[in-house]
Design a protein that fits this description.
Blueprint: H1 3-25, H2 60-69, H3 71-85, E1 89-91, H4 97-109, H5 112-126, E2 128-135, E3 154-161, E4 165-167, E5 185-188, E6 199-201, E7 205-209, H6 215-220, H7 228-251, E8 254-259, H8 263-269, H9 271-287, E9 301-306, H10 312-327, H11 331-334, H12 348-380, E10 391-393, H13 401-420, H14 426-435, H15 437-440, H16 448-456, H17 464-469
Antiparallel strand pairs: 1-10, 2-3, 2-7, 4-5, 5-6, 8-9
Helix pairs in contact: 2-3, 3-5, 4-12, 7-10, 13-14, 14-16
Length: about 475
Amino acid sequence: MSRKHQLNARAAKVNQQTDAARKSFMTNDSFQNFTARVGLGTQNQHSDSSYGFNFVSRNRIQMEAVYRSSWLAGRAVDCRAKDMTREGIEFNSIMPPEEKDKLSRAFERLQIWKSLGDNEKWSRLYGGSIAVMLIDGQRPETPLRLDTIGPGQFKGLLVLDRWLVQPSLENLVTEYGPDLGKPKYYTVVADAQALINQKIHYTRVIRREGVELPYWQRIAENGWGQSVLERLWDRLVAFDSVTSGTAQLVYKAHLRTYKVEKLRELIATGGRTFEALLKQIDMIRQFQSNEGLTLMDSTDDFETHQYSFTGLSDVIDKFGEQVCAAVETPDIILFGQSPGGISNGDDTSVRIYYDSVKADQDSCMRAGVTTLCDVVSRSELGKPLPDGFAFDFVPLWQLSDSEKAEVGAKDTNSVVQAFDSGIVDRGTALKELRQSSNTTGLWSNITDDEIKEAESEPPPVPGEKDLIDAPNDPGQKAKPEPGQGE
């Protein structure tokens, strides 16, 4: 026998042994049971289930209709957008307090947080939106150069949703960075409220997408994402169907049956006999009430049927939980009340939700807000941000009065100890105390004049404290220590 035949025979033997070993471990009752038709792919009804596309994000009129007519859809869009922008930011950098206050007032005066909230809101509804930085005297189609922004040039943000701009799908960003592959320009359509038919460079916009999509699906959506309502659609329809069906049951909660002997004959006969029957029914409806009487013939039969609503509240709650999970928002925020009651004392779900919002703020908003801070600084202060500039989004979870008092006492003691030990001067101590007012509410009345006056004070002379503690009479001698001569 040739070597080739020997190898083939050996391989066939190994395959037989492998098949035998595999069969010894096989079982007739696995995830796919063809005899019982259990599991996917076993010719049962479950096997015919699949997922299809539901491109409701492309139907702008449909999105606007559900946003206007469904309170639940409106809250699903608005809640997270409002929470991401309602508390603003706090500056954590070496800047004079008056400059920080001026930047904060500029954010309020220009309604920056409202515009950013609208940008987030319309991106969640339509699947995409941009906020254009309005800089007076600059052409929007040119790249943004921060060093060209002069005092008073920044005028705020203009929010344009995806249906008000046309992205340049054939002219994409080629520079390496987070915007690589995204549209380089956005052309405003003729129906927009401002900047009509103008081309806007991508560096001048803060772009937001609703639900980010994989590459080919993003191409199908003209480079945008999808509405948050698209994933929610089937759960939203199911919830509204349950609540509407329950409301319809109220009309049938109290049914009454009136049995009339030989009714068919009366209807067939018609005339005065049938009119008399209708008159009797009208009289019953007119005079019957909680305290009224029902007059009828002794051969007639009158019955009432009441419907029980037991279990419907549990069904509504379960469908509501699915809606909350679909939009990643706890029921106490989305519905305003948890199933256990609005004061059930469970704050875990709210804390988890706030942590999720914080993660979205850092990953999706931080870059745009950083650019805005630099733009506002050059426009309001006339200079760029200092080195080491940093900010934090104000936590959504607010401290109680007792917690604020405890934190305030600890912060104050820390600052006082640092001042007493000579680590910081009095001006720095006052700055630290006023900065802590954002969290504790204490020391907010420390004025800029007080800080400047403290900074202008001369540094303490070494040993000055010992001189202050010495006796006031210069002629009085200190008593010698034991063992020392006079």
